[in-house]
């Protein structure tokens, strides 16, 4: 967990340092930070499944919640902290039968988010529809429950890759949908796939 704290702090510092000059230039030119214009929060339904590196066993799908706090530092670039958990995941044999106890999977990540169309100055979509890509690092737990070494839930360092779209109805309210994959530091529990759908509130 010490490495996690160091990596997370370093990552957030790099995001902030990279964003500062661009944010200053944008503010000087137009004073516009983008539609979200600063701080925002997200609450969504999460659907996820662990990836088990075993041809005879996989992880079943679980459901839970996603919480996000973010700040759009300039038009097209934001920093976020995400906490997502799903419950009800079990080990699943090749024939579809489940076994072992139910497990919860958790991810806590610090992320950089980019809206590529806005960064490139393109207006291919209506202004309120905003596709994005996201990259982050953090920690959590990945597994399918049970006591076997290959499927039991265990803590892991995670690297997140994902993308999605925001749809802002007003300057304060909107909806979003995204999908992410969390690459795990563990050999057998190689990662965790997740999809979230929910609401955005901009402060």
Report on the structure:
There is one protein chain. Strand 7 (154-168) and strand 8 form a beta hairpin. The chain is elongated. The protein has helices spanning 2-29, 116-119; strands spanning 39-52, 57-59, 62-74, 77-93, 98-114, 129-142, 154-168, 173-184, 189-202. The two termini are 32 Å apart. The chain has 203 residues and is of the alpha+beta class. It has a single domain (2-202), classed as Porin (Beta Barrel). The protein has an 8-stranded antiparallel beta barrel with strand order 1-3-4-5-6-7-8-9.
* H/E series: HEEEEEHEEEE
Unreliably modeled segments: 1-6, 9-33
Number of helices: 2
Q: Structural class given helices, strands, pairing? A: alpha+beta
Largest sheet, spatial ordering of strands:
1-3-4-5-6-7-8-9
Short description:
The chain has 203 residues and is α+β, with helices and mostly antiparallel strands. The protein is built from two helices and nine strands, in the order αβββββαββββ.
Considering the chains and any ligands shown, give keywords for the structure.
203 residues; alpha+beta; Porin; 8-stranded antiparallel barrel; 9 strands
Write the layout of secondary structure elements.
Elements: H1 2-29, E1 39-52, E2 57-59, E3 62-74, E4 77-93, E5 98-114, H2 116-119, E6 129-142, E7 154-168, E8 173-184, E9 189-202
């Amino acid at each position: 967990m010490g490495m996690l704290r160091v990596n997370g702090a370093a990552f957030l510092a790099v995001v902030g340092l990279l964003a500062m000059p661009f944010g200053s230039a944008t503010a000087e030119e137009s004073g516009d930070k983008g539609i979200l214009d600063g701080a925002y929060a997200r609450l969504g339904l999460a659907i996820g499944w662990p990836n088990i590196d075993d041809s005879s066993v996989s992880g079943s799908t679980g459901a839970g919640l996603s919480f996000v706090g973010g700040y759009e530092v300039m038009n097209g670039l934001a920093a976020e902290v995400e906490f997502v958990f799903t419950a009800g995941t079990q080990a699943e044999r090749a024939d579809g039968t489940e076994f072992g106890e139910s497990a919860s999977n958790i991810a806590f990540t610090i992320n950089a988010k980019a809206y590529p169309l806005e960064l490139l100055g393109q207006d291919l979509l209506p202004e309120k529809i905003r596709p994005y890509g996201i990259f982050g690092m953090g920690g959590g737990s990945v597994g399918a429950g049970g006591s076997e070494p290959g499927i039991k839930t265990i803590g892991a360092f995670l690297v997140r890759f994902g993308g999605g779209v925001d749809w802002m109805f007003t300057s304060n309210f909107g909806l979003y949908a995204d999908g992410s994959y969390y690459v795990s530091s563990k050999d057998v529990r190689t990662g965790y796939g997740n999809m979230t759908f929910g609401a955005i509130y901009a402060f």
